Each structure stands twice: as structure tokens, then as C-alpha cells.
Hints:
The protein has helices at about 30-45, 55-65, 85-100, 120-130, 145-150, 175-180, 200-210, 215-225, 235-245, 250-260, and strands spanning about 10, 15-20, 20-25, 45-50, 75-80, 105-110, 135-140, 160-165, 185-190, 230. By secondary structure, it is α/β, with parallel strands linked by helices. The protein has a single domain, classed as NADP-dependent oxidoreductase domain (TIM Barrel, Alpha-Beta Barrel). The strands form two sheets. The chain has an eight-stranded parallel beta sheet. α2 (about 55-65) links the parallel β4 and β5 (about 75-80).
Amino acid sequence: xxxxxxxxxxxxxxxxxxxxxxxxxxxxxxxxxxxxxxxxxxxxxxxxxxxxxxxxxxxxxxxxxxxxxxxxxxxxxxxxxxxxxxxxxxxxxxxxxxxxxxxxxxxxxxxxxxxxxxxxxxxxxxxxxxxxxxxxxxxxxxxxxxxxxxxxxxxxxxxxxxxxxxxxxxxxxxxxxxxxxxxxxxxxxxxxxxxxxxxxxxxxxxxxxxxxxxxxxxxxxxxxxxxxxxxxxxxxxxxxxxxxxxxxxxxxxxxxxxxxxxxxxxxxxxxxxxxxxxxx
Length: 280
């Protein structure tokens, strides 16, 4: 089977989610942002990942409205921000996001961060939205295993997705293992680490061996770990490059080499050290 940007992983409820999508963190909120998303759709991307915190849902909505791609072929993700969490607050936040996106239903809704004392009530709201058919899949973001354990104590529905920071210096082996045990699909944000590993000797050597870019080698490594990626790029040629990772395969030894680059160094905050008070 020929894999491409429409190729999907199957979430535990049977919904297909593309293996590679476009992340739009820090993408402009105006016409320029809409153009970036439109370009990605023209390249072949079918999955777009935004969040209310990004303040660009309207731009994404403009691109979705302008595209000729049928709605059923698109996979749109957004997230509820920390100061919107709680049961009623989340339901209201969802309505705001849907209005900005201009959609009748959402493909994936995520809790952006595990706000202490809030995320369980927030999850109950996501379960309602899912049961009401307003969203096809629900999940979380930046949840450590202990957050998931706490959530699963009260959840009627197991999250379909956990979106976490992952790249060669943070391979998240323990979270990936936990999620695999609970049929939770891992999605990597900042999957190419904002380019900081492109000069790494191992990545450079593998890129030359396969006639691929460092970004493609890293994205292929994540794909072979069963992880969905949402790399961000505003440039058409980079968008094409990031999606072109299905025509080569790393050996197990090469996978192990990239695994060994792990140092635990993060780009974002550790979920247990995040300053939640400042975002409420």
C-alpha cells in the first residue's frame, strides 16, 4: 500500500487520524495564517492541529472554508486552554472554537494541559461532547502516566490520544509504553525539535545515507515508533518535505541509535512543573 499524507492510524474507537499533520502553533492569526493552512491542504495535508490558545482558529477556519477538499477527508484538532477548563466552561469554550473554525463537528478535541483540580471535570465535558456526536474523538495533551491514571479512575471513555512533546532528545519511552498498554495513540508536538538536532552527527549520517533531510529522518523515526507527528512549517517546500517520509525505512539498529540521543532535555515545560496559576 502506498502511504501518503492521507494515510491514517486507527484510534481505539475506529476513527482514522493521519500519521502526519500540520501544526499551527505560532502561525499568524490573519490572512497569512489562512494561506499557510491552504498551502498545506494543496500539498496534500488532511490533518490540521490548532488550539484556542494559539489564537488562530479563525485563520484555520478561513482556509477550511476556502478549500475544495471534502469535509469528510479533513481531520481537524483543537484544544481547550487552561483558563477555559471545568465542565460548563469547557462546553462554552468548545462552542467558541467551533464558531471560529466554522465547523459543524470536530474530529479531535484535547485537554491542552492537566490543570490540577480541573482536568477531570474538563474530561467529563469532553465525554459529553463525544456522546452527543459533536466530536469524533477526544483526548489529552501533556499528560504524564500519573495524570492518565488519575483520569482513568473517573473516565467512562479512555482518551483516544495523548499529544506530548517528543523528539530525539526526549523520546518519551515511558509515556509511549504506558499509552500502548491502554490503547492511547501518542501524537508528538515539536517532533523535529525546532531544528535543533539537524546538525547532530547521527542524524546527518542517516540523512546522507538515505538521501533525505534531517527532518525526514527524525519524522520517520517517530513514525516507526508508532507516533503521529504534527510538524509546523510555513513554507511549501518544507511542508512537502515533512510529508515525504513513507518511501524509506530505518533499520532497528538505526532506530536504536536515534533512541540513544535521549537526554531528557525539553523545549517546553514539564507538565509537573508548568506554571498553571499564571494561565488561569
